[in-house]
Amino acid sequence: MPRILTHLTAEEELTEHDAKMFGSPKERLDFYRREIQYETSILANRTDAYLAAQSFLVIAFASCMANLNPEWGKLFTIVVPPFLALLGLLSSLNAWPGIRAAYKIIDHWHFKQSQLLLSEPLMGLAYDESPLFSEMESSHKGYRKSLLFSLRTPWIFATFWVLLGSYAVYIQVTNPGG
Question: CA-to-CA distance for 34 and 112, rounded, in angstroms?
């Protein structure tokens, strides 16, 4: 049942509540790791779906540009490829908020994990004398580098679609090949 706080809660009550919820720092670390793994899999699934959609759009775009029908091919290649490029651009812009949100959630859980590891230095010494997490694994730079592909992909494809759509219109209007 949710509680409504009408006065400031004492620090002792908060730590007592946390202790009841997690039991030990190891349970808290396990919880953070599961959340990071869950959110990372969500980000991977979003990136997968996005890349699959983009690959189909690229194939459709290339097929439309290769249309050589003498009767309706010129009209088709001036209308459909720019439309597909616009669809690809809108898809990229639509994918960005979901990918960014997943990244921010992962960032939050990594921050919580690093704060726990800093506050409990013995956590890494659970089984032997070497730390459980190296500096690279627990620093912001370490996991952020691994997520850059997912973060950059929508912007790369958005730029790709703007350039490709512009080029498709340019070659159809100016007819540079002859």
Answer: 13
3-state SS assignment for residue 128: coil
Give CA torsion, residues 87, 102, 107, 39, to 10 deg. Answer: -140
How far apart (Å, rounded) are the C-alpha atoms in residues 178 and 175? 6
The answer to whether residue 19 sits within a structural domain is no
Confidence of residue 172 (pLDDT cuts 50, 70, 90): confident
The pLDDT assigned to 56 comes to: 97
Query: Which residues does 54 contact at the CB level (< 8 Å), separation at least 6?
Result: 88, 91, 92, 157
Cα 114 from Cα 54, distance rounded (Å):
36
Structurally, the chain folds into a number of domains equal to: 1
Considering only residues 76 and 56, tell me which one the structure prediction assigns the higher pLDDT.
56
Six-digit token string for 54: 């983009």
Residue 6 lies in a domain: no
Evaluate if residue 8 carries a pLDDT over 60: no
Measure Cα distances from 89 to 21, 160, 164 in Å.
45, 8, 10
Tell me, yes or no, if the pTM score tops 0.85. Answer: no
Domain ranges, residue 138: 24-124+131-174
Summarize pLDDT for 100-120 with one digit per residue, the tens: 999 999 999 988 888 887 787
